[in-house]
Amino acid sequence: MTALPEADPPFRAPRWSVLPAPQAVRVFMQPLPQPAWGDWNEALAPALGLPALPTPQWLHRLSGQATAPPWCSAYAGHQFGVWAGVLGDGRAHTLGCLHTEQGPQEIQLKGAGLTPFSRMGDGRAVLRSSVREYLCSEALAGLGIPTTRALALVRSPLPVQRETRETAAIVTRVAPSFIRFGHFEHLSHHGHRDALQQLFSLVLEDFFPTCAAQAQPALAMLHQVIERTARLMAYWQCVGFCHGVMNTDNMSILGLTLDYGPFGFLEAYDARHLCNHSDRGGRYAYDQQPLMGWWNCGALASALQPLIRDEQAIENALERFEPLYERNLLEGFRAKLGWQSAQEEDALLIQQLLALMQRDGVDFTGFFRALSAQEPGLHRAARLHAPAWVGVDSKDPDWDRWLRAYGRRSAQEPSHPEQQREAMLRVNPKYVLRNHLAQEVIEAAQGGDFRALHQLRQVLQHPFEEHPAWDHWAQPAAPGSPRLCVSCSS
Ligand code: AMP
Ligand code: MG
Q1: Cα 24 to ligand 2 centre (Å)
Q2: How large is the C-alpha radius of gyration of the chain?
Q3: Contact at 8 Å (CB) between 218 and 304?
Q4: pLDDT (tens digit, 9 = 90+) per residue, 320-374?
Q5: DSSP state string for 326-351
Q6: Is any ligand 1 atom within 6 A of the Cβ of residue 166?
Q7: How far apart are CA 129 and CA 146, in angstroms?
Q8: What is the DSSP string of 440-469?
Q9: Pocket lining: 282 vs ligand 1, CB cutoff 6 Å
Q10: Ligand 1 mean position to 259 CA, how many Å?
């Protein structure tokens, strides 16, 4: 192993590393052989106090070379509604924390080798799934949705066996914390009362300081996690993001989007859309996500029960999820439609719109962008000038009726039509990570060409802006292209 200079800036141990083993364990990584850059996120690095340009030192460090063992943690979880026992960082190592203006940021490598929690896995991540996680983390960040970030992608010729033989990669993830609902479930399930209290206190102090002053801090924190989760679900629905594996081990205590696997964005609108082909029962279909978010909060609440010990208060907290979610969703869709004020009829108009989109398989992102991009005042002319691929025939009587109703409703807005248009362009992205784009970039990367990855990442970091050279990335796959299958395998 090459001798490394001291990390600059230095990593500090994550606060949770004080938890007793096996809750926190130190374990060396298995560095990737012949590492090379896949991408370095120059838009994120300076915020972490790191150089904007990649350096050989960081390539070594982010390929798993270290002079001191990093940390892994145990967690548990409910997978597809079933208790899964001990899981944990099976292929994730926390190098440490960097102190930034936004507070401490944990730096974690995914795919740097075996850990005590690897179970049957190999501790590796393939290039294909690493490119997907790397791009989608930055796409959600670009959309303004709470998420873990991706700092870098390191590739290697190391072969990894999945359905076929692939090669290995490491994504460096960044978040204030990677603590999951499952961390609390693990300690609670095994009756580790002291460790549960200790983890709770650390998380409370660092991330929910206002709750500490409350009469019942654990209950106050549960309320905040419910609020954040309900808000996150509304954000996802508003951009058509489908996570695919909303198991409680993939739910962030901070309300961040976490663990990108078989995710997908809605294209032709279908409320029942399933992005994960392993999810036969449709548990995590697009329209089930809010319900599953609530269910997961219930699992967290049970785990926190020993700290709250008030069944009624827990029930009351969980009951707030639905109205909070509904309010956020309605606000989100109003903004998408350019409405700042609230009117009685709004919910019905949104419902009618989604029914039409469902009937005609209208492209979700394309529709809202086309509606936003209309010349101001045209709303009232009841014609939508959308490209054919969006899938709206505005001469169809039902669309004509809806567009006229939309025009009448929009005319009641106090803001100038031009302001309405600008506000809509700021919330309706032109670019989302469509599966075929990820696939295009993955195939180039597998052939050793990372230019498209770099370019697409930059476009996705600014999804509300126009990128004329990349206009075609705003569109669905060409008709007749093969349908891509995404599952849990990674
Ligand atoms: P996921 O379905 O990716 O959320 O993973 C569920 C659990 O399996 C987590 O504990 C992961 O760390 C672990 N895991 C997934 N893939 C691997 C792998 N290739 N090697 C070791 N552990 C893995
Ligand atoms: Mg996971």
Answers
A1: 17
A2: 23
A3: yes
A4: 999 999 999 999 999 999 999 999 999 999 999 999 999 999 999 999 999 999 8
A5: HHHHHHHHHHHHT--S--TTHHHHHH
A6: no
A7: 21
A8: HHHHHHHTT--HHHHHHHHHHTSTTS--GG
A9: no
A10: 10
> Considering the entire predicted model, what is its pTM?
0.97
Interatomic CA distance for residues 376 and 356, integer angstroms? 23
Amino acid symbol at 28: F
Q: How far is the CA of 154 from the centre of ligand 2 (A)?
A: 20
> Which CB contacts under 8 angstroms, 24+ apart, belong to 187-191?
187/23, 187/303, 188/302, 188/303, 188/304, 188/305, 188/306, 189/76, 189/83, 189/303
- From the CB of 488, is ligand 1 less than 6 Å away? yes
Nearest of 71, 2, 62 to residue 36 by alpha carbon: 62
Average pLDDT, the chain: 95
**Helix or strand or coil: residue 213?**
coil
Tell whether omega for the bond before 9 is within 30 degrees of 0, i.e. cis: yes
Q: Report the alpha-carbon distance of residue 260 to residue 241 in Å, rounded.
A: 11
The string of pLDDT tens digits covering residues 266-303 is 999 999 999 999 999 999 999 999 999 999 999 999 99
Chain centroid to Cα 275, Å, comes to: 14
Q: Are strands 71-73 and 165-175 parallel, antiparallel or unpaired?
A: unpaired
141's tokens:
């960040």
Tokens 């309706």 belong to which residue? 428
- CA dist 404 and 381 (Å) reads 7
Q: Amino acid identity of 72?
A: C
DSSP assignment letter at 10: P
Residue closest by Cα to atom 22 of ligand 1: 90
The rounded distance, in Å, linking the Cα atoms of 92 and 110 is 4
CA of 102 to the centre of ligand 1 (A): 29
Decide: 73 in ligand 1 pocket, CB within 6 A: no
Work out whether the CA dihedral 138, 139, 141, 145 comes out positive or negative.
Answer: negative
Task: Write the DSSP string, 132-187.
Answer: HHHHHHHHHHHTT--B-EEEEEEEEEEEEESSSEEEEEEEEEEES---BHHHHHHH
Residue with the smallest CA separation from ligand 1 atom 8 is 90
- Evaluate: CB of 126 within 6 angstroms of ligand 1: no
The amino acid present at 347, given as its one-letter code, is: A
